[in-house]
Amino acid sequence: MTDPQRFKDGLLGELQSLRAFAISIAGNVERADDLVQDTLMKAWSNMHAYTEGTNLRAWLFTILRNTFYSEYRKRSREVEDDGTYSERLAVHAEQDGHMDFTDFKAALAQLPADQREALILVGASGFSYEEAAEICGCALGTIKSRINRARSRLVALLAVDSGDEFGPDARSHAVLSSGPLSSPVGE
């Protein structure tokens, strides 16, 4: 069991070295101070993991280095934004998608079993035409034909005239694209 007072004294004794190392890898004094603070917090909360009598300095430097690289990886996935990008983010109304999916499931259920199976294998499960033909035990041309007929039948059942009918309606699209609306609803 690690003595908390000795552990604390050891942490405080390494502060200057930790800060110098943090500045060297972060290249920014404020960022380095944050790294040192995070390192000390992690070390204190994991005091039980430290084996007394081992190299405390090496343990702390490892924590600091791992923290720096974890945050570096996280930041590399983040998008710099001055607000213009986030202002354009929007979520489509959930009820429209739910209703569209309900309609789709009903139309899918009306397809003949062989067409439905072929369409689900290729369209939803991600199998290639060749793999779907092998699974169904039929020729490649037969799978392609079944999928073509299934898609055509779904278009007819769902009364879809073009690909523009998917996604938000015209009013929602105008709002999402920050375009002016020609007239409010009801006018």
UniProtKB/TrEMBL annotation:
Record NCBIfam families: PRK12547.1, sigma70-ECF
Family, similarity comment: Belongs to the sigma-70 factor family. ECF subfamily.
Matches recorded under PROSITE patterns: SIGMA70_ECF
GO biological process: DNA-templated transcription initiation
Stored InterPro entries: RNA_pol_sigma-70-like, RNA_pol_sigma-70_dom, RNA_pol_sigma70_ECF_CS, RNA_pol_sigma70_r2, RNA_pol_sigma70_r4_t2, RNA_pol_sigma_r2, RNA_pol_sigma_r3/r4-like, WH-like_DNA-bd_sf
UniProt cross-references to Pfam families, sorted A to Z: Sigma70_r2, Sigma70_r4_2
Record carries keyword Transcription regulation: yes
Membrane spanning stretches: none
Provenance organism: Chelatococcus reniformis
Molecular functions per Gene Ontology: DNA binding; sigma factor activity
Listed name of the protein: RNA polymerase sigma factor
SUPFAM superfamilies: Sigma2 domain of RNA polymerase sigma factors, Sigma3 and sigma4 domains of RNA polymerase sigma factors
Keywords assigned: DNA-binding, Sigma factor, Transcription, Transcription regulation
Domain RNA polymerase sigma factor 70 region 4 type residues, every copy: 105-154
Limits of the RNA polymerase sigma-70 region domain: 16-77
Record flagged with keyword Transcription: yes
